[in-house]
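How a chain folds remains the central question behind the approach discussed here. No coordinates are needed to read the tokens, only the vocabulary itself. For completeness, the protein is quoted in full, as a sequence line and a line of structure tokens:
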Amino acid sequence: MNTYLINSDKYLFLKELGISELNFGVFDGNKWKSNGKIIDILCPSTNTPIAKVQLASEDDYQRTLKYSRESIKIWQNIPAPARGEIVRQIGDSLRKQCENLGKLISLEMGKILSEGKGEIQEIIDIADFATGLSRMFSGSIIPSERKEHILLEQWNPLGIVGVITAFNFPAAVYGWNAALALTCGNCLIWKPAPTTSLTAIAVTRLIENVLKDNNLPPSICSLICGGSDIGLLLTKDPKVDLVSFTGSTEVGRIVGQQVQARFGKLLLELGGNNAVIVMEDANLDLVVPAVTFSCQRCTTTRRLIVHKQVYDVLIERLTNAFKQIESRIGDPLNENILVGPLHTKTSVLAYKSAIAEAIANGGKVECGGKILEELKGNYVLPTLISGLKHNSDLVLKETFAPICYILKLFFLLIFN
């Protein structure tokens, strides 16, 4: 019995995006071909396989890099405004498929549909910005100490930009990097998280078509799906001029050391164990909706530091808010749903482990703390935990799950 969702009429949008049951995870600019292991891409809302992806081998990486470096010679010699026009067309291509791409992100990653479509809209927006930028960036005119001379400053393309993205933003992070890098005359090699390879394949196919329509080498934007072995090749390769990595702080520290060891350039976008401080005069009507959602992204609130005068009241109000959204946990493709599943079973185990550790260290689960085993997928309840010390290891550690730690504040010292 064939269980792949790609073969269900419910998910016809997958085929409209060029997804098939078996997909090559490498695009070197000339062809889609990979020689690594084959993995199933699972839907986190049901843990049913969506389709298969064949990952990259080391030979695939070397081939992709070769073609990418060849394309630099063409792309960097195109005037910046003309490069901006290509980026504009890429944005338009994504705009036409925004609905389908949003659905794919929801299906593959697990975020709700509005967030999936919003992620594609972010790429469209940055493409518009980069198009304008292509006619604006310029160098300085500097006086020279030599008679009848001036100094002109001109920005030149860097070369190859390797982009390593995380599962929680499977498209937008690449889009932010790609739009700006392309406008500045650079070529890209994209290594997405293996579990969101289908989104990367769909986006790359759209970019490929735009480049071909303009008689440009598609190797300007290459794709190489793989695991940490491929990421290691990318970070250690001196032929990759800049590495942009998005992921955990732990892995980012390793990536930073590897790139700097060869004096390469890098951008790191890492974890952000964010905190909100609520003073006694805060408007709780604004606080409650602002901190209700804590989930699988580095921009959500994980630590809530609350003044003792409003501590108990805020716990009660947040508990009520969390309980109100329990009925709206489910299939992220359903537009009435507010909370989708965690991305993988491993994420569920991390959620469970964090709660157990919190209780063992004196924490109290004010609400949530439960895995929704009656649902097929990786569903858990949003959780609020009190009673932990502000400097406990668990509070200081970022857990990619809907857990918020609430801490009692007795006084706050502000130093100017």
Observations:
- The longest helix spans residues 113-133.
- The chain has a mean pLDDT of 94.
